[in-house]
Amino acid sequence: MPANREDSRTFSAGKDEVYQASMQAASQCGFNIKESDQAAGQIKATTRMGLRSWGENITISVSADGRANIKSSCRGIQLVDYGKNKANISAFFAALEPLLPA
Hints:
- By secondary structure, the protein is α+β, with helices and mostly antiparallel strands.
- It has two helices and five strands; from the N terminus they run βαββββα.
- Strands 1-5-4-3-2 form a five-stranded antiparallel β-sheet, with helices on one face.
- Helix 1 crosses helix 2 (about 85-95).
- The mean pLDDT is about 95.
């Protein structure tokens, strides 16, 4: 199973606002958005290959209670992520939090 990491945060905003902010944050992080479904609250993206990994698959889901959940998984059979999945998640929330009310 490839290395992965997951985290979530709840915001005091509605699903649509969190979803739109998540789309913007994902773009700011350099994630390549492959699929997005606002009704379902789902965003699927990828990252490029780098020195630490072969790239990651990013899945973001937004629930009705304003919670954003992100999962970053290494592509292929990479068993060690050298902190790249954690860095993707940290970058996403660092970009997302200023876009939403406290």
